[in-house]
Write a structure and sequence with these properties.
It comes from Mucilaginibacter ginsenosidivorax. It holds the Pfam family NIPSNAP. This is NIPSNAP family protein. InterPro entries: Dimeric_a/b-barrel, NIPSNAP. This protein is an alpha+beta fold and about 100 residues long. It has a domain of about 70 residues: 2-Layer Sandwich (Alpha-Beta Plaits). The protein is built from three helices and four strands; from the N terminus they run βαββααβ. A four-stranded antiparallel beta sheet has the order 2-3-1-4, covered by helices on one side. The longest helix is centred in the first third of the chain and has 18 residues.
Length: about 100
């Protein structure tokens, strides 16, 4: 299955930093926790220019909440976000997606 993750950040500049620096690190470390990163995008229109949108996949039988919690508590996540003020993430929205066929 896939999960769409939408991160809303304080402003466009913070989103650009999170996209280029932190998601580059997440792309390396998330697979260690069972996630496959399908793609990461940054909003390109005024209403979403402060958003980073990621699509990740995981095994159909996986507990995505447990996988996420394990990653968030890991030294890898701490290193991924060491130079980033996480308070600048104002909202995180997640949606589990399943293929219709």
């Amino acid at each position: 299955m896939e999960q769409l993750r939408i991160y809303t950040l304080a402003d466009k500049e913070t989103a650009a930093q999170y996209f280029t620096t932190n998601w580059a690190r997440h792309r390396i470390n998330l697979p260690k926790f069972g996630f496959a990163v399908k793609g990461v995008w940054i909003g390109n229109t005024p209403g979403i220019a402060n958003q980073v949108i990621a699509l990740v996949s995981f095994p159909d039988n996986a507990d995505v909440d447990e996988m996420t919690e394990r990653y968030l508590k890991s030294p890898e996540f701490a290193a991924d976000t060491a130079d980033f003020d996480r308070n600048k993430i104002t909202n995180v929205e997640t949606k589990i997606l399943r293929c219709a066929s």
